[in-house]
Amino acid sequence: MESAANSHPSMEPSLLAICAMGLITHQLFRRLETYAISTHSLLLVIPQAVGFMLLRRSMPQLTAATVSCIVFLLSLITSVTIYRISPFHPLAHYPGPIACKVSKFWMAGVSLTGRQHTYIQSLHQRYGDVVRIGPNELSMRDPSVLNPTFGPGGLPKGPIMVGRILTATNLPLVGILDPELHAERRKPWNRAFSAPALKEYEPLIANRVTQLVRVLSDQRGEIDVGRFFNYFSYDFMMDMAYGGGSELLRDGDTNNIWHTMEAGWPAATALSHVPYLGPYGGRVPAIAATVDRLVSYCRKFTMKRIERGSERKDIFHYLNNEDQPEKPSPPISQLLDDGILAIVAGSDTTSSALTSLAFCLATHPAALHKLQAEIDRFYPAGEDPCVATHYRDMHYLTAVVHETLRLYPPVPSGMNRRVPHGTHGVMLGPYFVPGGTSMFLHPYSLHRDPRYFSPFTTSFWPERWLVAANRGFTNAGSVTFNHNDAAFVPFSHGPGNCVGKQLAMQEMRAVVCALLQKFDLRLRDGWDVREYDRGFKDYFVTTRPEVPVTLQARF
Ligand code: HEM
């Protein structure tokens, strides 16, 4: 009988096939920026050749090509897995669950549930301030890394937006990885959110806030107040980005545009964990459909806005260099990307914060009445609550907004940064982080850490902000008071932070003053308040559950 070894061709051609596969995989993963696997694929030739011979002997019915493929893939997966959990991996000394160390697909799966924020918080509670949440990714819960990571001269942005936006080219501002390009693209945004520009937006804010209060006055019985905040913030951002064009507050969401925006969140969030798949995800019709719809919707408004020119100063005025006529307009693709960014970054975040704020106040009547007393003092009935003159003196109002953002940050898991590939690594505070590592400073975990905010860490207690600023007294007795502003990062930090922070603050203050000047909030009797935390889901920005309230006119 012929032996299996004799009945098959010599191993050289297969060795060649394995080498070729190694090279192809090497190139493919380099393209996908998964450098560890890319190097790996070249190191496996010898064990693969041995595996090839063994499998070929034990399963002679398989063709050499099939055996080569099986052996190559199995050895690649096995060796990558072993390397990632081995003490030789550069992040080996950082703890974390094995599933996270092995593959980012684990976090992608977790993110689909919307519980990413509580999952990472639980990892920090179990493993400490630095946790390995991916093969080459860390989550941190230590404010000492804030400046070295996010501050001037810190790290460039990480790749999550490539996965989220389904493209590695034409990234909008928020996703630009190259710090110099980012700084250049940020210039018109900085002009759009300068103090004089913000002053000019006041009538636009007042217009929509007045409409919101009027629409709410027309409602009878119980309402889901978050839905009205969604409509308000979307209409307002359309005013800001394109000089108008949306009337959700007036007509409702007849075009399903809000739904379109949110429908894509889970897939986008999962892909943000495997960003190298984002550009391919963009070719899957079911995944790309929502992005395509949003893009074609916004393209229409971009073109109209360009034709119409500047009727009044809005964000587009600056993004299109209309304030610097000597400069050429940017390409339309850039205006389109930045316009979509303004709508998406500016509407859902603010609406999330306002909904959480309504929930917190409706469940804490004492805080609600204290805030109303302050509003009545600065804006008694008949005074226009949208004139921003007094906002900065309204310390309780600021405390309420901050406390809401602390407990319910609209971007609960924050944005990532990455130590550039090919560098040795950097010290972030006391931690050495090797080149190629992506990292998050996790707002949800920081905000709910008693070392930084206590007492009443997980409760709504706006007074903590007054105590911290020496504007209030704590009656917490012998309990230690902890407060660390560096651990409060709802808008992120540094040159890549939220450029719309001041606008968002102004918008929220105007809504709260106008709403509470006019109405009392009453939560539905017997509504289980735990519903809010259960339904507060982290898809980068959050989705929120219904908050059923009745508004009672105060006069
Ligand atoms: C409560 C409301 C808001 C919150 C909590 C929030 C939060 C954030 C966060 C966490 C980032 C990521 C920053 C980073 O990469 O480190 C961001 C970026 C950004 N936000 Fe906001 N945001 C809010 C409202 C707004 C508004 C009203 C606008 C107006 C258009 C806006 C525009 C942007 C833009 C353009 C970026 C990208 C900035 C850059 O990469 O340079 N945001 N925001």
UniProtKB/TrEMBL annotation:
Gene3D superfamilies: Cytochrome P450. Keywords: Heme, Iron, Membrane, Metal-binding, Monooxygenase, Oxidoreductase, Transmembrane, Transmembrane helix. One of its GO terms (molecular function) is heme binding. Heme binds at C498. InterPro entries: Cyt_P450, Cyt_P450_E_grp-I, Cyt_P450_sf, Cytochrome_P450_monoxygenase. The chain crosses the membrane at residues 35-55, 62-83. Its cofactor is heme. Pfam families: p450. Pathway: Secondary metabolite biosynthesis. Belongs to the cytochrome P450 family. This is High nitrogen upregulated cytochrome P450 monooxygenase 2. It comes from Trametes coccinea (strain BRFM310). The lineage of its organism: Eukaryota, Fungi, Dikarya, Basidiomycota, Agaricomycotina.
